[in-house]
Every structure is written in C-alpha cells, then in structure tokens.
Predict the structure.
Amino acid sequence: MAGIIGVYAFDKIWNISKFLYYGLIGLQNRGYSYSGMSILKENFQLITNEGAPEDIELPPNIEGWAGIAYTGTKIGYPIITDFGTLVVDGIIKGDLNEIAKGLYKDPENTLKEINGVFSLIFLAKDGKMLGYRDSYGIKPLEIGGFGFDLAILSSETSGITVIGGEFRREIKPGEAVFIDTYEISYSQINESRHNYCAIDLVYQSRIDSFVFSKNIYEVRVKIGEQLAEEKKIDADVVIGVPDTAIPFAIGYSKKSGIPYDLGFTRTGSPIRTMLASDDFLKIIGVQLKLNPIKYVVKGKRVILIDDSMVTGRTLKNTVFALRSLGAKEVHVLIGSPKLISKCPYGMEVPEEKDLIAANLSEEEIAKVIGADSIYWLSLEGLYKVLGKSICVGCMTRNYPKVI
C-alpha cells in the first residue's frame, strides 16, 4: 500500500520541491513507514526516509522542475535507474530496472506486457513523465494541475488539492498519460475492466478526496445511511472514530434521527492502526491519536461506528475507554463487511489467522471487545452504495484473477 505523486513544471524556472513535499504529506494516510522523493534538475537527486513524509528533511539547496515521490509501508521506492526514476503503488511483476528501461525506450509496448495490480509514475532521464494504471484499476491514480504551470499525478486528489492544485480527472484503468514540456496526452493501452478496491473507498482514502471518480465523504455518508437501514438500535447518541468513520456516523444519524456528537478529540498526528508495523501502536493506537469526550458519552447508550475491524484490539480499547467514562451501553457498527482474507494486491490486510471476523462468531467478538452488540455492513449494502465494479476479495475470498 502506498501513496505516489508526480509534479511536473512546464517551464524549468520552477522549483517544485516544496510542492512535491507537501503533496506527499497529503498522501501519508496511504502509508507512512517509508517515504522518499526524486527531484530532477540536470540530474536526479534522491531523498529517502525511514518514516513519514512529514519527517523528511529537505536539503536547503534542493532544486528541480520535475519530481516523483512515494510514501508507503515498505521500503524500495523511488528507485533511480539509468533511464529514470520509478514509483509504484501495488504489486508489479518483473525487474524494476528492466521495466524502467522499457518505459523509457518503448513505453506503450512495455505497458502491454507488465503484469500485476498497480499504478505507477515514471520520470525519464530526458524529462518526460508517464503515469499508468493497470487494466483492472484496483489501485487509483488521478491527474490535476496548478494553473497552466504544473501537472500533478497523485494516488488520490488530496495530494493535488493540498498544494493548491485543481483536480482534472481520473486516469482510467488501462490508460497511460504522457507529459512533456509541450503537452499532456492520453492513450488507452489495455482494456479497462474496473475492479476498484472497496477498502480504498471505505477506509484508506481521505474524506476530502475523490478516488475512482467518487466523492469519499459522500460515499461514507451513504454507507452510514445504509447501516441505519440495516441495523436499527435504540440509543441516545451516535459517534464515529475520526477521521474515517465520522461521515458514517453523520449518515447514520441523519437516517435514524439519533443525534450525532463529537465523541473524540485528537491528541496527536493521525495513526492508521491497520498500517502500523509496531505491535504496540496496533494495540494502543487509538489512545495515542484520540481521547474520548466524557460529556458526550456519560450515562448514555452509545452507537460507536468504525470503518473496519481487523484484529479487534483497537476497538476493544475504545469500548473500554467509553465505558470507563460512564457510557451505559456501547453498540458497535462497522462500515464495511467482515474482513476475512489477506489481500494479495498490497492492501495492508493481515493474514486470516489474525482477522477476528474470520475466526470468531459475532457473539464471541462482542464479548471480546466488551460491546453490547456488534454489526457489520452487509455485502449487499456495500454493493448498493458502491456498485458491483469493486474488488471485495478480503471480504469474500474471491479475488479478480489478475496475477
């Protein structure tokens, strides 16, 4: 799982280093264990960091008119080759140096031959930039611009808008975009099959983004409304785990008529507990980033909505915290179907043995996390909101056969 971004100035007098840096920070919700960027002036300058993009230290004299950057959960990107620099979100088969060579010398035929589930951005040594999504479209890629001066490629639109850019459109599955100092052109390289990642829409993307041509906030409000249709609960207040699940809670409140309230206040930088590599962070990640508000929950029957449940450890701690502050009842609703299988395409869903919903009944899970009840969005409800052109393999064990 990764966030990738490319920034390209049509005039070489520009220095895009800060645009690239802050755009990458806008994508660290997609992974933050490793990050790096490659900036081109006469030559490439590579900066890597074992940590989040916000911890990258830019050299004071760094300059360049084009660059690409990566933030993710495993090291290795960006890579510099004899032919250019490459960043990848997803799983790509083959030697990356050979792929970079092919993208430089014969990009369209090379893209026809690459296997995997990925989006990529390639910045060639001659200054041309290329973006591409594989034909299944499981990984996103968007394009925008900064006036007529910059072109911006990004995993999601937050990487574009946080630096003042304007979102233009989605790169279609199987489509390549070619950028040079004279023009931006598009080519449909491979057949478009459309299997958007459901977890990207439900959990991974920022609520202020457009991904897969969908407004993430609107999607999640509709999921909350769907939860209210499927599971009616007699309660006093609805709260959502920030930031991802707040729109779910708003949607549930609108549909059910139960008041929504702010249940938590942030205590530090966002921590995506599903993406955490440290077991300590996985266990107490919610407490590190959020603190419940006693006034909202004391003496009340609380509906707590979260985007997903992986191991159950963070929700167990959250439910315990709400009860410690005097919540009379805690009913947990999950804005996605049960996660029961590891993702083979790079989304950070753990092994099946570690997924609580794959190993325990609903009654057992409610008891483990200390909730009065628990309910997951139905698969039919997810399809109703998102349509059926989505990958739900981690929820069904049925994956598109793409590798």
About this structure: Residues 40 and 108 are 23 Å apart (CA to CA).
